[in-house]
Amino acid sequence: MARVAMASSEDAISPLVQQWLEWDQEPETRSEIEKLRDSHDVEELEQRLRNRIQFGTAGLRGRMAAGFACMNSLTVIQASQGLAKYLRNKHPEIASRGVVIGHDARHRSDRFAGLAANAFIAEKIPVWYYKSASPTPLVAFGVTHLRAAAGIMVTASHNPAQDNGYKVYFENGAQINTPMDVEIAQSIEENLAPWPHAWDDLQSNEILHDDALEQTLPQYTEAVWKYASSTVTDWKQPKPFAYTPLHGVGGLVFPSFCRSKGICAFTTVPAQEKPDPDFPTVAFPNPEENGALDLAIQTADQEGKTLIIAHDPDADRFAAAEKVDGSWFLFTGNQVGALLGSHIFETIDSQGSKSPIAVLNSAVSSGMLERMAVSKGIEFRETLTGFKWMGNIARTLEESGYLVPFAFEEALGYMFPSICHDKDGISAAMVFLAAETRWREQGLTPYTKLQQLFKEFGHHETLNSYFRSPSPELTNVLFQGIRNGSYRTEMTLGSFKIMRWRDMTEGYDSGTADKKPALPVDKGSQMLTLWLDGDVRFTLRGSGTEPKVKLYIESCGASRDLAVAAVCKAFSTVLNEWVLPFAPLMTYSKQLPTSSGHVFTAA
């Protein structure tokens, strides 16, 4: 009977195996599927082949391996063919402007970028091709600078070494958003079979501009410099610092950029200076993770430097640390957002503006930017998570007459629309260095400036945590259990009073007149935000790119101790009232809180 069941399972997966081997011409991934077939590993074949990797507003991102469910040459070809046809059929009036294609220094990124270019060349759509690895913001900048129809960046940002991704921008230089992602996904489904020459090595031709990076990089760095230096009255040298690109592409651009502008008093971490797709010195190549900046701290200590500047591997995120009273203080993304925001507001105060001004941050980011903006009479807009929202909303505001100088998200992402409409670690680092010179003239460091802001606007303490979710089904069970409870009707959570309840999945907001959220409702994702008494707010949401449910808590108090106590109480309440009762297959690991959050693992 077991042999019959196995034969039946193999028969069911066999057409997908055959389809893969018919289409895939990459020896390595063909061999993976052949070995799984020959060893009768039906379970693994089902995971690899039954469902396609999902194309969404984040494009594609996942583990590199053979199979329709993974990142590999075939799925990149299919995505590119679908996007090329989408531009040609749905936007023929702009398709002739071409697409910008860049890539980071990860394994296979250059190969994926070349295969992507083939699809657009097949449709006679010009390609502005970045031959060398480069930072992600250069693609967003290149789309608007070159007036292209779209942009593609092959990157998995700060994901582990085995991952890769495919990020898409539209003509406005912002990441694609709904419903465009659905339309592109449909076009991909209609163009799955590789076209003639899809697997060819990229060849020179009249519509391939493979010198695009040499054209664009100087324009980008000049735009960054012009903006950063304009935020101070008189540019002065920043204090000496240590720099790490965490084995990424920031090291190919930022050090030489600094030196070209006379900023030479810095040391790049030697072991992390050059791109290395294996990220050998860090467990996770993300400056938010514990230990990621250990080598930068060692280098700074050896050199007697008290400031650290860091980028993630594709240089779209920026992090900073300062030595305070003999210990290193690692600024959170929210704290850097407040610091950069305050610097932008001071610049506006000194220079003025003829246009109304608006700033943005996401729903999971600190409320401190809003408090600062309101105090200045500046428009503040909250957005859903991700720069796909902030970039496009900034564009809409600009079209209606607003100047939008700044937006940020807590995950170390900062946007300066004067340069590009996506998060940009290179620009953020240069603006931060400019701000440091201003604060130094005021007798402040970044840390003491932050304390000054806390005294003025309240001490904001945050805790970003997560638990691992083995499946989307379990995530849905958790959220449905919460919704089926009496919390929304009784407006209590443990000993907290619920002042406001917002459900972005079901489209409910107790804080609005019509009980509907002002933000766009997304029934395809899970997201709850609660405002509690004691000036506490938290958001629980399912991650769109990782198998996690994320928790973001913030409290504003008269002192750090009060704010920390409120945050810890809120975390304990959410854990005991929601996570443990409604996700019994999850257990809380008994580790102490870290900057990367609490971890929950399957029992």
Automatic annotation (TrEMBL):
InterPro entries given in the database record: A-D-PHexomutase_a/b/a-I, A-D-PHexomutase_a/b/a-I/II/III, A-D-PHexomutase_a/b/a-II, A-D-PHexomutase_a/b/a-III, A-D-PHexomutase_C_sf, A-D-PHexomutase_CS
Keywords: Carbohydrate metabolism, Cytoplasm, Glucose metabolism, Isomerase, Magnesium, Metal-binding, Phosphoprotein
Domain named Alpha-D-phosphohexomutase alpha/beta/alpha: residues: 53-191, 219-322, 333-437
One GO process term, biological-process aspect: purine ribonucleoside salvage
PROSITE patterns, alphabetized: PGM_PMM
SUPFAM superfamilies linked to this entry: Phosphoglucomutase, C-terminal domain (SSF55957), Phosphoglucomutase, first 3 domains (SSF53738)
Cofactor(s) listed: Mg(2+)
One Gene Ontology molecular-function label: phosphopentomutase activity
Subcellular location: Cytoplasm
Any one of the GO CC terms: cytoplasm
Signal peptide stretch: none
Top-level taxon in the UniProt lineage: Eukaryota
PANTHER family tied to this protein: PHOSPHOGLUCOMUTASE 2B-RELATED, PHOSPHOMANNOMUTASE 45A
Family: Belongs to the phosphohexose mutase family.
Name this polypeptide is given: Phosphoglucomutase
